[in-house]
């Protein structure tokens, strides 16, 4: 049984827990009040704001070595809904050099918590897009996602995280503006 540690217990953290647990993972959570917690999983999901990365790296970089680290953020200025990292970068690309002994991948940022929880985007199965440079890390997460009843698509190497963040930002802006429901969003139709 795969072990997964999720940083954060908000809507996304809980929805991802549901998917990965259904996929056969044993899931534990670390929240901001858990000072000095131990990471138990070989997969670690950062279901926290982008601004929390530096604190997590400072406190847990040794424990994150050798692990698959999943960045789910959409690093936005929430007043303008514009992406924060430089135009040729992404939150995941900024995180990777800070964790040189980890396998950083981008996933779940193009999904809403409701579509992860229900497994549906409208009439279609929710699909998780995953970008990263380590094929085994992507496949490991993909197996848990598909085991949990969702679709999985390898979206390419870590440089593609920037495009995933742009899709996530667009989708969030549409939902906040009332143009799409939080139970909707973008779907992959095969």
UniProtKB/TrEMBL annotation:
Keyword Oxidoreductase: yes
Listed Gene3D superfamilies: NAD(P)-binding Rossmann-like Domain
Key words, A-Z: Oxidoreductase
Protein name per its UniProtKB record: Diguanylate cyclase
Domain of life: Bacteria
Domain Pyrroline-5-carboxylate reductase catalytic N-terminal residues, every copy: 34-75
One GO MF term attached to the UniProt entry: oxidoreductase activity
Listed Pfam families: F420_oxidored (PF03807)
InterPro entries the record matches: NAD(P)-bd_dom_sf (IPR036291), P5C_Rdtase_cat_N (IPR028939), STEAP_metalloreductase (IPR051267)
């Amino acid at each position: 049984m795969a072990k997964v540690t999720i940083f954060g217990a908000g809507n996304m953290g809980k929805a991802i827990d549901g998917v990965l647990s259904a996929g056969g993972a044993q899931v534990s959570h670390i929240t901001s009040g858990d000072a000095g917690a131990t990471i138990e999983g070989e997969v670690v999901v950062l279901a926290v704001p982008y601004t929390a990365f530096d604190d997590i790296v400072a406190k847990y970089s040794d424990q994150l070595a050798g692990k698959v680290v999943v960045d789910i953020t959409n690093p936005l200025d929430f007043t303008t809904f514009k992406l924060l990292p430089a135009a040729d970068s992404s939150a995941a690309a900024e995180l990777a050099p800070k964790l040189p002994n980890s396998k950083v991948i981008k996933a779940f940022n193009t999904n809403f918590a409701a579509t992860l929880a229900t497994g549906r985007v409208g009439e279609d199965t929710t699909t998780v897009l995953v970008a990263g440079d380590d094929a085994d890390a992507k496949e490991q997460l993909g197996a848990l996602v598909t085991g949990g009843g969702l679709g999985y698509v390898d979206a390419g190497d870590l440089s593609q995280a920037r495009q995933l963040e742009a899709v996530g930002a667009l989708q969030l802006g549409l939902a906040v503006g009332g143009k799409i429901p939080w139970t909707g969003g973008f779907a992959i139709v095969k």
